């Protein structure tokens, strides 16, 4: 089970995080710039690779980080959401920051925020209409205090700069243009992963609108690598790259050849070299090729900067070994066999479609049981439409999150698709019900969000005698699992 935030209450940063959470989220760069002003702009001392996208950001960077590390580089990663611990957000060479060190950095963030607020208060103290003691920014507008994500972003920059990493891999939180990470002015490389519908209230209702927001991270004359995307998305990104005089490389399916696909990984050919990855799913091959292309671009940049490519450390061997050694929890992660248990963070229709395609390819004639919790601001009806044609049973629950959707509401929605669904108290109760029902040949899939992964009890699948002795009761709706020939609706 994941280490809960604040499990060790001796650390004050737990209280700081809870306080900052109450500030919610606010788009814009002025506040984070102000915070970085106080900190001396540590981001300017880093060689940054910046990524935006709807799905695949973490996977692309997991592959890239592993290749760079294999090549002898020290790599910082700033990621969210996390699965095992809060500290996992800040990693160097795959190791999360220690609680003691994080305590120190949050203390410095508190001091920086206080200094920022005091400076603005003094600057605007005598402005007309200004209330005594009320901080404001230039123009007399009230100062917006930094949000949790803005503080985390500044902390990541400071941590990586002071630790002297060779590369900092920075993921956007949401969007691109107004995301706090977009305070980065001079990245070494930018990457755009797969773009699809998500966060419509903030990013727009159409793919071109969403792509336009993601394209905001493209900088003047900075090369950009773009994952496989639909033409209407590529057109927007290409236009933005042209505007910024940025060399743009688009990944296409024709760039690689798939040799094998299995439940525990794939093998493919790229530029006449064979690569093996342990992350299953066709989409992960595409993510790996995006990461390979990014590594190749970095090699070229290093070479131009006076480091010959053969000495840059990102050679074919580092690429092959790096990809082969990549692990990325919660992304079609195989937890157990007999029965198969997968954990996947698919939280939007595109992610659900890719999950459904994987299950249809490998488990067409096996009973699939979903353990599912979603956030209420997600398009869960469309997610169910992608997944439920394969389902024999769904166990639902409400994630322990203020945005969590009621398990009963999700179960009710699932029943409209003609699938048997049962609401449970939490993810572990749902998991326990599914494990007790499952036979060795069945497939259990935990999905819907990464937000509840912290709540999961690993022991539920590490010891499964009940799964071997479960009754042979069939719970598929309409037909026996062995006769099912319906597809995933793609």
Q: Can I get a quick summary?
A:
By secondary structure, the chain is of the alpha/beta class.
Label the CATH architecture of the largest domain. Answer: 3-Layer(aba) Sandwich
Provide the gyration radius in Å: 23 Å
Task: Indicate the proportion of strand residues.
Answer: 15-25%
Strand order of the largest sheet: 4-3-2-5-1-6-7-8
The tally of beta strands, per DSSP, is 17
Characterize the quaternary organization of these chains.
Answer: single chain
Described by the principal axes of the CA atoms, the overall outline is globular
The helicity comes to: 25-40%
Number of helices: 16
Question: SS-based structural class?
Answer: alpha/beta
The name of the CATH superfamily of the largest domain reads Mur-like, catalytic domain
Mean pLDDT: 87
Low-confidence stretches: 132-140, 466-490
Kindly identify the CATH topology of the largest domain: UDP-N-acetylmuramoyl-L-alanine:D-glutamate ligase
Instruction: Supply the number of structural domains.
Output: 2
- CATH domain class name of the largest domain: Alpha Beta
First and last CA, distance? 35 Å
Tell me about the biggest sheet? 8 strands, mixed
Overall description:
Helices cover 37% and strands 15% of the residues. The protein is an alpha/beta fold and 490 residues long. It folds into 2 domains: 13-324, Mur-like, catalytic domain (UDP-N-acetylmuramoyl-L-alanine:D-glutamate ligase); 333-483, Mur ligase, C-terminal domain (Protein-Tyrosine Phosphatase, Chain A, Alpha-Beta Complex). The strands form 3 sheets. An 8-stranded mixed β-sheet has the order 4-3-2-5-1-6-7-8, sandwiched between helices. The protein has a 6-stranded mixed β-sheet with strand order 12-13-17-14-15-16, with helices on both faces. A 3-stranded antiparallel β-sheet has the order 9-10-11. Strand 12 and strand 13 (340-343) form a beta hairpin. Helix 2 (30-39) runs parallel beside helix 5 (148-163), helix 3 (57-70) crosses helix 9 (282-304) and helix 11 runs parallel beside helix 12 (380-387). The two termini are 35 Å apart.
């Amino acid at each position: 089970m994941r280490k809960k935030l604040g499990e060790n209450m001796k650390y004050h940063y737990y209280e700081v995080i809870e306080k900052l959470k109450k500030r919610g989220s606010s788009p814009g760069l002025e506040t984070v710039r102000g915070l970085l002003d106080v900190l001396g702009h540590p981001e300017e001392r880093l060689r940054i690779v910046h990524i935006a996208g709807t799905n695949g950001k973490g996977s692309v960077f997991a592959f890239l980080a592993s290749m760079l590390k294999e090549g002898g580089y020290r790599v910082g990663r700033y990621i969210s959401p996390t699965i095992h611990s809060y500290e996992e957000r800040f990693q160097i060479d795959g190791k999360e920051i220690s609680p003691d060190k994080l305590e120190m950095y949050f203390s410095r963030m508190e001091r920086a925020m206080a200094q920022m607020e005091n400076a603005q208060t003094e600057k605007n103290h005598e402005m007309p209409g200004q209330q005594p003691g009320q901080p404001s920014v230039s123009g007399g507008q009230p100062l917006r205090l930094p949000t949790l994500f803005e503080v985390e972003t500044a902390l990541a920059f400071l941590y990586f700069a002071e630790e002297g990493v060779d590369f900092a891999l920075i993921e956007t939180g949401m969007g691109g243009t107004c995301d706090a990470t977009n305070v980065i002015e001079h990245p070494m490389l930018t990457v755009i992963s797969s773009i699809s519908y998500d966060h419509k209230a903030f990013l727009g209702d159409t793919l071109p609108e969403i792509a336009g927001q993601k394209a905001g991270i493209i900088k003047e004359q900075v090369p950009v690598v773009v994952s496989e995307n639909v033409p209407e998305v590529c057109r927007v990104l290409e236009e933005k790259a042209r505007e910024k005089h940025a060399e743009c490389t688009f990944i296409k399916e024709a760039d690689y050849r798939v040799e094998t696909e299995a439940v525990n990984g794939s093998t493919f050919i790229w530029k006449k070299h064979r690569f093996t990855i342990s992350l299953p799913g066709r989409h992960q091959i595409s993510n790996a090729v995006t990461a390979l292309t990014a590594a190749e671009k970095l090699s070229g940049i290093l070479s131009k900067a006076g480091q010959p490519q053969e000495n840059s450390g990102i050679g074919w061997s580092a690429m092959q070994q790096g990809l082969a050694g990549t692990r990325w929890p919660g992304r079609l992660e195989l937890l157990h066999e007999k029965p198969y248990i997968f954990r996947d963070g698919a939280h939007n229709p595109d992610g659900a479609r890719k999950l459904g395609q994987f299950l249809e390819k490998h488990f067409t004639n096996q009973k699939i049981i979903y353990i599912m919790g979603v956030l209420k601001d997600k398009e869960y009806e469309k997610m169910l439409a992608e997944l439920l044609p394969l389902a024999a049973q769904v166990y639902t629950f409400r994630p322990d999150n203020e945005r969590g959707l009621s398990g009963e509401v999700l179960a009710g929605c699932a029943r409209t698709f003609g699938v048997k669904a049962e609401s449970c108290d939490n993810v572990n109760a749902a998991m326990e019900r599914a494990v007790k029902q499952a036979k060795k040949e069945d497939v259990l899939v935990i999905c819907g969000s990464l937000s509840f992964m912290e709540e999961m009890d690993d022991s539920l699948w590490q010891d499964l005698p009940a799964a071997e002795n479960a009754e042979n009761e069939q719970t598929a709706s309409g037909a026996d699992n062995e006769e099912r020939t319906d597809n995933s609706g793609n």
